[in-house]
Each structure stands twice: as C-alpha cells, then as structure tokens.
C-alpha cells in the first residue's frame, strides 16, 4: 500500500507562554502545509449526542480530544524480568485459536471514522492526543504480566491514517507526551486561553509498478553432508516505525 515518511515536525505552545511540545505525528497523518497556529480547545465526544455541543464552534481550532490522565510514580514493573514464575506461565499458557484472543484495542463509543469526518467538516486545524488511557502495557502472548509505561517524555504513537490510497481523508493528528498534554488541559481549566503553533511536513509514496515493500533473504549453508538437502526456514516480520530507530523497531525483534 501507500507508504508515508516524516520530513519535518515541530510544535510549540505559544500562549500563554512559549513551551516546546514533545510529540510525534501519527503515521499517515497529512501535513499542515506550512506553519499553522490555532486556539486550543478541549472536545470530549463520548456519544453521538455530543456532536451538537461543538458543531459550528471548531473552525480554525486545535482539538484536545481526551481528559487529563494521571501520571503515577514509577512503582510497577518497568522491564520484564523472566523469573521462575514468569517462565512457568509462559510455558503453560495455551496458544489461543485463530481469532480467539479478542480485539487488541477496545471499540470506541463513537467510530473513529465518524470523528475524523466531523473534525474535517468543522474545519479543525489539528487533533492532539496523549495516547492511551492506561499507563500499563500487556506483556503479550496472552500472559498476565503488565509493564508500567515510562511517562517522562516517552511517546506511544500509533497510526492516524491509512496506507490505502482510497481511504477517507483524516485531519492532522499528533500524539504528545502525556504531561505536556495535561498541562494544556490544566491551563484551559483555569480559563486561560492556549494557542499552539505546528509545522508538520510529510510525504506520501504511492505504489507504482514496483511495490514499496521488499524482502530480505539470507542463507547460511550447512556443512553436514548427511543434511545438505534439508533446510530450516525462519521467517521474520521486518519493518520500522517513524518514532523509533530502525534498530529498535523492528530489526532487533526480527533478529530475535
């Protein structure tokens, strides 16, 4: 499908005072077309009935679509350490049947596509979020352990648009470090106006005759003459993400 690359990004709160904002644009987000500025407003749409509260009020605004989230002290597991208990669980946890593990993300009360269309129809400049509502990440493989996310400037950013060139358009979408997001909410709650400046430049790469994706193939030939006609085939999912280096996501995972 259509690929996407980030060329430049910066964001600053410029009123009531200057503050550089830590964040990353969501993958496949459109760009701003240059430096843009807008008044920041909190928009909480939790049901279809909430649309009417904001209709006609968002043109030229920058939207904060979530409530403030608590930032806890680091008191949980930060890094998975496989002790005897965790190893025993990993060895005994049954592998779920295909499609039996349930959805990875909860279904929102209002469909994301409906929200995006509303923001575009209303003339919103950008949507700034702070990531997930929880500060915990599941260990994966249907095991019970959870790790606490490190909130001190670490940004957990996903995709905002689609690699499908025929997908519906989306607004500019950026994920901020949770405390920078929280601070703007607190300022607004005191009745003080907030203004933000954003410069986001991206490039979309449409697939032509040659696909954007490619395979990496390596071979280590065996030396035992009795096994020369046999192979061990290992497959890995090799990709990368704009918010991290290619080494950390996903080269190390593929190597492991």
What's the quick description here?
By secondary structure, the chain is an alpha/beta fold.
Task: Explain this structure.
The chain has 256 residues and is α/β, with parallel strands linked by helices. 18% of the residues lie in helices and 22% in strands. The protein is built from 5 helices and 10 strands, in the order ββββαβααββββαβα. The strands form 2 sheets. The protein has an 8-stranded mixed sheet. Strands 7-8 form a two-stranded antiparallel sheet. The longest helix has 12 residues. It is globular, with a radius of gyration of 22 Å. The mean pLDDT is 88.
What brief labels describe this structure?
single chain; 256 residues; alpha/beta; 8-stranded mixed sheet; two-stranded antiparallel ribbon
Report, as a whole number of angstroms, the end-to-end distance: 27 Å
Beta strand count: 10
Q: DSSP strand (E) fraction?
A: 15-25%
Number of helices: 5
- Gyration radius from CA atoms, angstroms: 22 Å
How do the strands of the widest beta sheet line up side by side? 2-1-10-4-5-6-9-3
Order of helices and strands: EEEEHEHHEEEEHEH
Biggest sheet features: 8 strands, mixed
- Roughly what is the average pLDDT, rounded to an integer? 88
Low-confidence stretches: none
- State the helical fraction: 10-25%
Shape field: globular
Strand and helix layout:
Elements: E1 3-15, E2 19-20, E3 23-25, E4 35-42, H1 51-54, E5 61-64, H2 84-92, H3 112-122, E6 126-129, E7 136-138, E8 146-148, E9 172-176, H4 178-189, E10 195-205, H5 247-255
Parallel strand pairs: 4-5, 5-6, 6-9
Antiparallel strand pairs: 1-2, 1-10, 3-9, 4-10, 7-8
